[in-house]
Amino acid sequence: MTAEAPTGQSQQKSGKIGVLLVNLGTPDGTDYTSMRRYLREFLTDKRVIEWSPWKWYPILFGIVLNTRPSKVGKAYETIWNKEKNESFLRTYTRNQSDLMAERLTDLPDVIVDWAMRYGKPSIAERIQTLKDRGCDRILLFPLYPQYAAATTATVNDKAFEKLMAMRWQPALRTVPDYHTDPIYIDALANSVTRHLATLDWQPEKILASFHGIPLSYSEKGDPYYGQCIETTRLLREKLGLSEDRLMITFQSRFGPEEWLQPYTDKTVERLAKEGSKRIAVLNPGFVSDCLETLEEIAEQAAESFHHNGGEKFAHIPCLNDSEDGMRVLEKVVRRELLGWA
Ligand SMILES: C=CC1=C(C)c2cc3[nH]c(cc4nc(cc5[nH]c(cc1n2)c(C)c5CCC(=O)O)C(CCC(=O)O)=C4C)c(C)c3C=C
Ligand SMILES: [Fe+2]
Ligand SMILES: [Fe+2]
Question: Whole-prediction pTM value?
């Protein structure tokens, strides 16, 4: 007679492979409480704010979390997806997951899901769900074309933190950056060409605006800056544009430190003051449109450009859940699944 497996082992489903798409995060609503909860989780992440908690927490809990939730909540309200009552980042991430599942139907053992680093659904919850559905292998895809410790590494950390609490861990593979992948560069170039073709004017300058990081993070060895430069160089090559015509800039500064330069807001203002009349801005580092692209660029930067004498401003949307955008994500996933599926 064979001994029965202890309860738990015999009942485990297995043999499936999970693909977990993870983006930055999103508040549940634009109200003060939702915003504060979201910002608190975000801004207590040591990968995001590297200051010692002794120095940072009095500022965070004494000032930032009292003032910023209302301010940022108002900004979110202007770009909220009213139809779904959620942020567009959430809408696009879910769509990307659904479309990815449709694209991978030739791999019947693969289950696709999505999560957010901050807010819901959490990485821990989705890893548990994938495990419960029989995934003994999980491909974790932080949705950032360029690697930064503040984005990619914190997603990986959070996933491994969940694994630390599991007795029977799934195998976990993390997806690396894809900042020079030709399919990504082609998709960006197409998005620029296609969007400019819809305008009855052409920009004198195009800005490739990336989210910034503090300069000190770069100096400590973060490869993010070099990767943004490389993406932009390849995009320029693909579009046949000069350095002067397609410029790189960095946006979304936070706090008093020096961040990567040139700054997007200052460049937009300077260009307008120097007499540029028509500019376009794209955000190659954002897989999906979000607060930082829809509000900071399409609203705030446009307003600043007009206010300082500019006439025409175009925001080129992110790749989002478009055919080109999905082709990029699918290619990366299929490549990283090799040997598994
Ligand atoms: C020191 C603070 C921050 C660093 C470093 C940082 C890096 C970083 N962020 C993104 C992508 C996004 N950031 C978004 C919002 C956002 N970012 C910060 C701060 C830092 N980001 C804050 C405080 C916020 C919240 C809004 C605000 O209070 O101003 C978003 C948008 C999220 C959304 O819900 O729409 C994205 C996306 C990258 C790629 C990056 C480093 C490379
Ligand atoms: Fe950010
Ligand atoms: Fe911002």
Answer: 0.95
